[in-house]
Amino acid sequence: MTEIIDINLQEILNHWDLELYRFEKICDVYKIYTQKGIKNLKVSPAVAARLQFVHQAVQHLTKKGFTQMYPLIPTVQGDTYIFDQHYAYSLFDWIEGRQSNYKNKKELIQSFRILADFHQKSYDFTAPLHSNMRNHLGKCLKHFEERHQDLLRFKEMARNDAHDPFAVTYLANINYFLPMAEKAIAKMKKSAYPRLVERAKITKPFCHGDPAARNFIITPNEEVFIIDFDSCRLDLPIMDLIKFTRRVMKKYRWRYSVAKLLIDNYQDIQPLTSSELEVMKAVFFFPQKFWRLAIRYFDQHTQYGPERLLRKFQKYVNNKDYLVLFQEQFENYQSFSGE
Fold first, then answer.
1. Whether the Cβ atoms of residue 191 and residue 140 lie closer than 8 Å to each other
2. In whole angstroms, what is the distance from residue 150 CA to residue 318 CA?
3. Please, is 296 exposed, middle or buried when counting C-beta atoms within 10 Å of its C-beta (0-12, 13-18, 19+)?
4. Which residues pair with 98 in a beta bridge?
5. 51 — phi, psi (to 5°)?
6. 15-65: per-residue pLDDT in tens?
7. Confidence at residue 3, expressed as pLDDT on a 0 to 100 scale
8. Which candidate among 99, 110, 186, 338 keeps its CA 20 to 30 Å from the CA of 171?
9. Considering the chain, what is the average pLDDT of its residues?
């Protein structure tokens, strides 16, 4: 989250010919009341190469007719952002509403359908030259192999700290999760992943990068908007779908019927090929959260205290049988496209 510093808001808004009536700070944005309505002044680290990519992606969606977001509002000079010495500022209309609720299946269905439409409209995107595009395309297998080595390294670290509660829990579960990682790698190597990557280099889609309930806003009239494109990247759209499904599934103890309902609705908009599903099935075998919590603990990549990390880790491993059942059931999930 960006730490917002004190700025002269009226001076910033002059670039959009707006008069400031009042404002509220909400996380890393300002809710701005102006003579032209309520606006969202987005504050970002002042990295031009990154903003160029993100803003070009947003404008691409607008041109393709994606309507479930508010487009960028250009400055009087036609720019999509302005700089000061600390940050960059961009402007959108304000979306009044609340974040999607993981417990509300109707809202989840709407969110998955919006994500599918987002992906459908993302194709044929050309990133600006020299922009920071966060290109993850083709890196999934390499990441799995690196994380598999991490799991082995953490096993040795845990053995050297056998009285630590997190280490004890890790050692009690690593032989359950390590074969999952190995199976994910083996399945990925046999999958059509390289062919999908080569195809994506031609069809040029991109990902949102951070599909989560907090980034789907439900308006008072129950319309759904997607927000916060700062994590946009080049990758297979199914990586967004996998990430969003994982985040939902941990709230439902990996209940296959919920995943099927949501992915079915995604496929109503953007059908998946059998090759894409083959890759998804491989990725779901990798124990991503087991690795993520372990690296946060053993390599101290977190702001969380050890007690909180231990609680999250124990909760995850206590649901491991549900995860395995999901993996087995998802193996039979089918493509809508027939490809």
1. no
2. 22
3. middle
4. 218
5. -65, -35
6. 999 999 999 998 879 999 999 999 999 998 868 899 999 999 999 999 999
7. 46
8. 186
9. 94
pLDDT in tens, 244-283: 999 999 999 999 999 999 999 999 999 999 999 999 999 9
The Cα–Cα gap between 334 and 339 comes to 10
Residue type for 278, please? Answer: E
Beta bridge partners of 207: 233
**Residue (of 233, 242, 268) closest to 113 by Cα position:** 268
Got the DSSP string for 8-59?
A: -HHHHHGGGT--EEEEEEETTEEEEEETTEEEEEEEEES-HHHHHHHHHHHH
Q: Tell me the CATH number at 206.
A: 3.90.1200.10
How many angstroms separate the CA atoms of 172 and 316, rounded? 13
- Residue 66's identity, in one-letter code, is F
With tokens 């004890």, the residue in question is 168
What does the alpha-carbon distance between residue 273 and residue 46 come to, in Å, rounded to a whole number?
Answer: 39
Q: Which of 71, 94, 117 marks a domain boundary? A: 94
200 and 243 housed in the same domain: yes
| pLDDT band per the 50, 70, 90 thresholds, residue 201 | very high
pLDDT of residue 4 exceeding 60? no
- Give the number of C-alpha atoms closer than 13 A to the C-alpha of residue 47, restricted to the C-beta side: 12
User: Which residue in 108, 132, 118, 144 sits closest to 61, CA to CA?
Assistant: 118
Residue 235 three-state SS: coil
- 230-247 pLDDT tens trace: 999 999 999 999 999 999
Question: Which amino acid, residue 32?
Answer: I
Which pLDDT score, from 0 to 100, does residue 9 have?
A: 93
**Which 8-state DSSP code applies to residue 135?**
B
What pLDDT is attached to residue 155? 97
- For residue 22, the enclosing domain spans 9-94
Best CA proximity match to 185, nearest among 136, 237, 149, 210: 149
126 and 156: one domain? yes
In single-letter form, the type of residue at position 238 comes to I
Q: Do both 112 and 89 map to the same domain?
A: no
More confident residue, 7 or 224: 224
